[in-house]
Amino acid sequence: MRTRTIGDVTVSAIGLGAMPLSIEGRPDERQAVSTIHAALEQGITLIDTADAYHQAGADEVGHNEELIARALASFHADTSEVLVATKGGHLRPTAGAWTQNGDPAYLKEAARASAKRLGVDAIGLYQFHRPDPAVPYADSIGALAELLDEGVIRMAGISNATVDQIREANTVLDDRLVSVQNQYSPAFRSSEEELVLCDELGIAFLPWSPLGGITDAAELGSKHAVFAEIANARRVTPQVLTLAWELAKSELVIPIPGARRPQTIMNSATAPTIKLSADEIQRLDAA
Length: 287
Known about the structure:
The protein is of the alpha/beta class. The chain contains eleven helices and eleven strands. The protein has a single domain, classed as TIM Barrel (Alpha-Beta Barrel), CATH 3.20.20. Helix 4 crosses helix 5 and helix 8 (225-234) packs across helix 9.
């Protein structure tokens, strides 16, 4: 598995987006753990989660974090090099609803709760999940700065951020911002400007829903003809081809495809082996 860096930590070029293992339609725990173990066996050393990854409205905040902790503890090999990236500030109080809480006191409490669920003294990477319109952005990021200074988290990142928010967060954190996790896929390219800025600043860019989301990922080839065409020529799936295209964007891009089955993440893990030509990249960019 090729590697990339987040801050001063080396991770696999592809991560595992663990959200599908805990939200609606999730598999049973045996399959979920097997999926995480399959990722580890493929050399994946970045696992993405959040305290809000649970069934909406259910009294199970942190379900995904606890699942990951159990999977890591039961794996047959050393997992000390695995970076678990979690997030706080986003909530699922009722079905179909997402809310935000960027209050600094809340974020600090949420981070400590996440660390406890993950069974760690300090969270490897903690990201502010989504801006809260009711709270000044600098105040929310200030909580991450305090968590860094207090040793509750080792690295800080942000998610669903604009160019201006990336710059502001990096300033508040005294240039300690190491990651930005925004939506990015063939169907959603509005984060291109943020990706370019991250490349300029040396900040890791983690595309969430890199295949277009749980529902659209299966139809990626039918919706994006050029991706299907090049994938067929390469004898790979459109999904793997898409991840390879995202990896070619920058050495700081680390896609985090979701998975519910071991075979899905095993397939995604092959993407870093594909080196696209300049012509292929140009065609995919223009699609």
